[in-house]
Amino acid sequence: MPGISGDKIIASLKTNIAFEKVPMIVLSASDTGRQTALSCGAIDFIAKPYDIDNLLGVLNTYLHN
User: Fold this and answer.
1) Which structural domains are found in the chain, ordered by start?
2) Which InterPro entries match (predicted)?
3) Measuring CA to CA, which of 18, 31, 40, 56 is 20 to 30 A from 8?
């Protein structure tokens, strides 16, 4: 995203009581941000290009928990 990184957005949202329990899954073109995203509060990380079945499986897991 231009101007701000996804991990900064997640960290900012997680400090807001309205979003602190919202599960966030990161989709990224780079696999290098996995640990950063998870440490900032994301519940999962999927690197692009992603397999649609894998993406749907991850979404299904978190929607049903």
Assistant:
1) 6-63 (3.40.50.2300)
2) CheY-like_superfamily (IPR011006), Sig_transdc_resp-reg_receiver (IPR001789)
3) 56
| pTM summary value | 0.78
List all residues 6 or more positions away from 40 whose beta carbon is below 8 Å from its beta carbon.
7, 8, 10, 11, 14
**47: which strand partners?**
28
Report the alpha-carbon distance of residue 41 to residue 36 in Å, rounded.
9
The widest CA-to-CA distance across the chain, in whole angstroms, is 34
Report d(CA 64, CA 37) in Å as an integer.
Answer: 22
Count CB atoms within 10 A of the CB of residue 35: 10
How far is C-alpha 59 from the geometric centre of its chain's CA atoms?
11
